[in-house]
Specification:
The termini are far apart. This protein is mostly helical. It has three domains: 6-176 and 291-358, no CATH class; 443-532; 546-768 and 771-790, no CATH class. 37% of the residues are buried. Helix 2 (44-72) runs antiparallel to helix 3, helix 10 (270-289) packs across helix 34 (772-782) and helix 18 runs antiparallel to helix 19. It contains 34 helices and eight strands.
Length: 805
C-alpha cells in the first residue's frame, strides 16, 4: 500500500523543482520590500513574516539546487521535450543569485554576521553544485546565458558574504583601530639623559605640546540659520556615525572628538538633535544588517554594475533563442521568463533604493567646512528628496484639552518606530491595560477599535477560562468529599469509581498542565499573551524629547573631567533630588541611594502610578504652579521603564539585578492585598491606588515583614506619600513640585539604563523598530556623558632641556 498515491507522486516529481524555484522567488520578493520596514515598526506580525521568509529563502534555494543536480542525472521521461534538462540547468545560477539575498537584508540578527565563514563555505559549495549541474548537461545550447547568470549569482553571493564579514563585530572593530602609537623613543631618550648626567651636564626632561601630526579639521559650527536643511541633517548624521560607530565595539574616543560633538550639540535645537541621531542610527542599522555599506564603495558599485549587466545580457541571449517553445516545456519557459523579468525588476528596485538612500546623499554631497559656503547645484534636489522623510509632528488634543505635538510620521517615511511602549504594574495586577494619554489619529480609529475589540474578546475568553477553572476546582473539591465518604462505606466505589474519578479530574488536568508549562517554557507563550493584553503604546511628543534633551544638555556642562562625567552618567535620581533643593531631599534620597537599581525602578514606578491615579484632572487644571506635561511625562516614562524591565530583559540585563524576583514578590503581595480588599476583580486602577494609599505606614514594612520577601508595594506607598508632601512644602516655597521632581528623576533612571545597556543590544534593537532608549544612549555620548572618552591630554612629547632636574 502506497502512503502517497501514485498520481500525487507524479505531480510532485514533475513540479517539485518548479515549485521550489517559484517559492524561492517569492521569498526574495517579500524580503526586498518588507525588510526595510523592520527598522520602522516593531509589529510582531512583520517580524514573524520576515523571520519565516529569511530562514526559508536559503533552505528553498539550497534544496532546489540539490534537486536540479539530482535531476540532471536522470533519464528523460516519456512526453518530456528532449532538452528540458538543459533549461533546468539555467535555473541553478538563478538560485545562486537568490542565495545572495536582497540588498535590504543580509542578517536577521546581529549574531548572523559572525557566521560569515559559513556563508563563504556556502558560496563555494553552491557554486560547485551549480557547475556540476551544468557539466552534467554538456553541450548545453544555453551555455552563454548560463555563464552570464553564473557571474551575476557569484557576485551577489560574494556581496552578501562581504557584508556579513564587514559587519561581524571583530572585523568591524579591526577596521577602526588605528596603527599602534609607540610614543617618544623612551630607550633613546634615556640613553641621552644618562649620558648628559654622566658628563655632569645640568639637564631635565619636560613635556611640551606636540605639533599636530595631521591637519585638524576646523571646529564644527552650526550654520547661523533658523533650522538645518534636510541634507545637512543627513550629512551631520553621517559624520557623527563615522565618529561614534566605535561605541558598538567599546572603542575609546579622544577628548577632541568629545568636545567637538558636545559643543555642536549644545548649539542644536532639540528637534534637530533628534533628527541627526535618527539619521545616525539609520546608518548604523544599514552597516550592520544590509549591503548598503559595501555597495557605497568603488568595488561595490563596480561589481553591482557588472552583475546587472550580466543579468540583462543573459536575458537578451535567452530571449533571442529561437524555437524555445518547441525545444522546452511551455511551463518551464514561462517560469524562466518570470525569473528573468522579476529578477531584473527587483534589481531595478534595489538600484532605486540604493540611489535614494541617506548614504548616497551623504557620500555624493560632502559636508561643507564653511556653513556659509555656496551650495552645489545638486543640493536642492537632495533636499527635496529628503523632505519626504522629514519627521511629521501633528498637534494633538489630549485629556484636559491640552495640546501636544506628537510624532505622526508615516511608516514609509520613518527612520524608527517613534513609539514609546508601556507596562503598568497595578494594571497588570488588576488584569487591565492602562488607558492611553494620547489617542490615535482619526484615520486609525477603526483599526484601533478592531484591535481593542480583539484584545477585549481575547481577554474575556481568558477570564472565562480562569473562572471555569476555578469553578471546576470548587466542584471537584465538593465531589471529592462526597466520593471519599461513599468509598469508606462501599468497597466497590473505593476500588472502581473513586480511582476512575481521581484519574479523570486530577490526572488528566495534571498532564495538560505539565504540557502547557513545557510549551510555555520553550515558546514563552505567556509572555507573548501578556504583551498583547497589557502593553500599551504612546507616540513620542515634542515636549518629552525637549525635556530629555535639555536635562542632558544641562548635565553635560558639569562633565569636564572623566570622574565627573562618570558620576553624572551613573546618577539614578540623586542628582535631580539635590538639584531640586528641597527640605524633603534626604527623606527621598533613601529611595535611590541605598537600594538596587531594579528596586528603585519598581519603587518609583508604583509611587508614580499611585500619585497619578490620586489626582483628578480638574485639580491639575486649577493648579497654577507646575505643568500637566510633567505629570504625563512621568507617567509615560514610568510605564516605559517598567516595560523595558519586564518585557525587554535583554536591554536591561546589565542593571536588572533580581528585578524578576522582586517583581513577582511584589505582584504576589499586591494580588493578595487587592483580593482581600475586594478590588481585584473591579479593574478600577483609581480605587486600587486609593486602597494602597489608605494603609498606614507608621512602621516601615521591613520592620514588620523582614527581608525574606522582596516586595516593595508598601515601600512605594511610603514614597508616594513623601512625594505628595512636596506640593505642601517645596512646591509652595518656589521649589519644584512633585511632578517636576518625578520627571527629572525619571530622566536620570532612563539615562542610567541607556548608558549601562550593552552597545550590541542597542544595535540589535534597531532591527526591531528602535527604542527611545537607543536615542538617549547616543545623545549621552554626544554630550560626553559616557565612559568611553579619554579626556586626559595625549598630544605631548618629552624633550631634554638644559637645567637642573
Amino acid at each position: 500500500m502506497r502512503v502517497i498515491p501514485l498520481t500525487i507522486k507524479k505531480i510532485l516529481d514533475k513540479w517539485n523543482i518548479r515549485g521550489l524555484v517559484i517559492l524561492s522567488l517569492l521569498f526574495q520578493t517579500s524580503l526586498i520590500f518588507l525588510a526595510p520596514l523592520r527598522k520602522r515598526t516593531s509589529k510582531k506580525l512583520l517580524a514573524a513574516v520576515l523571520w519565516t521568509s529569511y530562514l526559508l529563502a536559503d533552505w528553498t534555494a539550497n534544496y532546489a539546487v540539490a534537486q536540479i543536480t539530482k535531476n540532471q542525472g536522470k533519464e528523460l521521461e516519456r512526453g518530456d521535450p528532449p532538452k528540458n534538462k538543459k533549461l533546468l540547468a539555467l535555473w541553478a545560477p538563478f538560485l545562486l543569485l537568490h542565495l545572495g539575498g536582497p540588498d535590504t537584508i543580509t542578517a536577521l540578527a546581529l549574531e548572523d554576521n559572525a557566521l560569515w565563514a559559513r556563508h563563504l563555505f556556502g558560496l563555494v559549495s553552491q557554486a560547485l553544485a551549480g557547475v556540476y549541474a551544468v557539466v552534467q548537461s554538456m553541450e548545453n545550447i544555453l551555455w552563454p546565458p548560463i555563464t552570464l547568470l553564473f557571474i551575476t549569482g557569484v557576485i551577489k553571493y560574494t556581496e552578501r558574504t562581504r557584508a556579513l564579514y564587514a559587519a561581524s563585530l571583530d572585523k568591524f572593530k579591526d577596521r577602526m583601530l588605528k596603527p599602534g602609537d609607540t610614543g617618544p623613543n623612551y630607550a633613546k631618550l634615556m640613553e641621552e639623559y644618562a649620558s648628559r648626567k654622566d658628563s655632569n651636564l645640568p639637564t631635565q626632561i619636560v613635556l611640551i605640546d606636540e605639533p599636530d601630526k595631521h591637519e585638524r579639521p576646523p571646529k564644527l559650527v552650526r550654520p547661523d540659520r533658523d533650522h538645518l536643511t534636510d541634507l545637512e541633517i543627513v550629512q551631520y548624521g553621517f559624520k557623527f556615525f563615522n565618529t561614534f560607530k566605535g561605541l558598538v565595539v567599546d572603542l575609546i574616543f579622544s577628548f577632541r572628538e568629545r568636545d567637538e560633538s558636545r559643543d555642536f550639540f549644545k548649539e542644536l535645537k532639540p528637534e534637530e538633535a533628534l533628527r541627526i541621531i535618527e539619521s545616525e542610527l539609520g546608518f548604523l542599522y544599514e552597516s550592520m544588517y544590509t549591503k548598503t555599506a559595501i555597495l557605497h564603495t568603488i568595488t561595490g558599485t563596480l561589481s553591482r554594475a557588472i552583475a546587472f549587466g550580466s543579468l540583462l545580457s543573459s536575458f537578451f541571449l535567452f530571449h533571442r533563442r529561437p524555437l524555445k517553445s518547441v525545444e522546452f516545456h511551455g511551463a518551464d519557459v514561462v517560469i524562466t521568463y518570470t525569473l528573468f523579468i522579476v529578477g531584473i525588476a527587483l534589481d531595478v528596485a534595489s538600484m532605486v533604493m540604493f540611489l535614494l538612500s541617506d548614504w548616497t546623499f551623504a557620500v555624493l554631497s560632502k559636508l561643507k567646512d564653511d556653513p556659509e559656503e555656496e551650495k552645489s547645484s545638486i543640493d536642492p534636489l537632495f533636499n527635496w528628496l529628503l523632505s519626504f522623510r522629514r519627521p511629521q509632528w501633528k498637534k494633538h488634543k489630549c485629556r484636559g484639552n491640552r495640546v501636544h505635538e506628537v510624532l505622526t510620521t508615516r511608516i514609509l517615511s520613518r527612520r524608527w518606530s517613534g513609539t514609546i511602549y508601556g507596562f503598568n504594574f497595578i494594571g497588570y495586577c488588576l488584569k487591565t491595560k492602562a488607558s492611553r494619554i494620547h489617542r490615535k489619529r482619526v484615520r486609525n480609529v477603526l483599526s484601533e477599535s478592531v484591535c481593542e475589540l480583539l484584545v477585549s474578546t481575547f481577554d474575556n475568553v481568558i477570564r472565562r477560562v480562569q473562572m471555569l477553572s476555578g469553578w471546576i476546582k470548587n466542584v471537584d473539591r465538593s465531589i471529592r468529599i462526597v466520593m471519599r465518604q461513599l468509598s469508606r462505606k462501599n468497597l466497590m466505589i473505593r476500588y472502581t469509581v473513586y480511582p476512575l474519578y481521581v484519574t479523570i479530574f486530577l490526572g488528566i488536568p495534571y498532564v495538560f498542565g505539565e504540557l502547557w508549562g513545557y510549551i510555555d517554557r520553550i515558546f514563552s507563550v505567556r509572555s507573548h499573551i501578556d504583551q498583547i493584553r497589557f502593553v500599551s503604546s504612546e507616540p513620542l511628543t515634542k515636549n518629552q524629547w525637549e525635556f530629555i534633551f535639555n536635562e542632558l544638555k544641562h548635565k553635560s556642562g558639569y562633565a569636564e573631567t572623566p570622574e565627573v562625567a562618570k558620576k553624572v552618567s551613573s546618577a539614578r535620581g540623586e542628582w535631580a533630588l539635590r538639584d531640586a533643593k528641597l527640605a524633603e531631599t534626604e527623606r527621598l534620597m533613601r529611595y535611590v541611594e541605598n537600594v538596587d537599581y531594579d528596586q528603585s525602578l519598581l519603587l518609583w514606578h508604583i509611587a508614580t502610578e499611585l500619585c497619578f491615579q490620586e489626582e483628578e484632572e480638574e485639580m491639575l487644571e486649577r493648579r497654577s504652579g507646575e505643568s500637566c506635561d510633567d505629570r504625563e511625562f512621568s507617567k509615560i516614562v514610568s510605564d516605559y521603564m517598567m516595560y523595558l524591565l519586564i518585557m525587554q530583559p535583554k536591554l536591561m540585563s546589565e542593571v536588572a539585578g533580581i528585578g524578576t524576583i522582586r517583581f513577582r514578590d511584589t505582584l504576589a503581595e499586591a494580588e493578595r492585598f487587592f483580593k482581600g480588599r475586594h478590588v481585584k476583580n473591579l479593574r478600577d486602577m483609581k480605587r486600587a491606588s486609593k486602597t494602597v494609599l489608605s494603609v498606614s505606614n507608621d512602621i516601615e514594612p521591613m520592620n514588620v515583614k523582614g527581608d525574606r520577601s522582596k516586595s516593595v508595594l508598601f515601600d512605594a506607598s511610603m514614597l508616594a506619600k513623601e512625594l505628595q508632601r512636596l506640593d505642601e512644602s517645596g512646591g509652595g516655597n518656589g521649589g519644584d513640585g512633585k511632578w517636576r521632581v518625578l520627571s527629572k528623576v525619571w530622566v536620570e533612571l532612563l539615562s542610567y539604563a541607556a548608558s549601562h545597556c550593552e552597545a550590541t543590544e542597542h544595535v540589535a534593537q534597531l532591527s526591531r523598530g528602535g527604542e527611545l532608549l537607543n536615542f538617549v544612549w547616543l545623545l549621552m555620548a554626544h554630550f560626553g556623558l559616557a565612559d568611553q572618552f579619554q579626556i586626559n591630554k595625549g598630544d605631548a612629547r618629552a624633550k631634554l632641556v638644559d637645567g637642573e632636574s
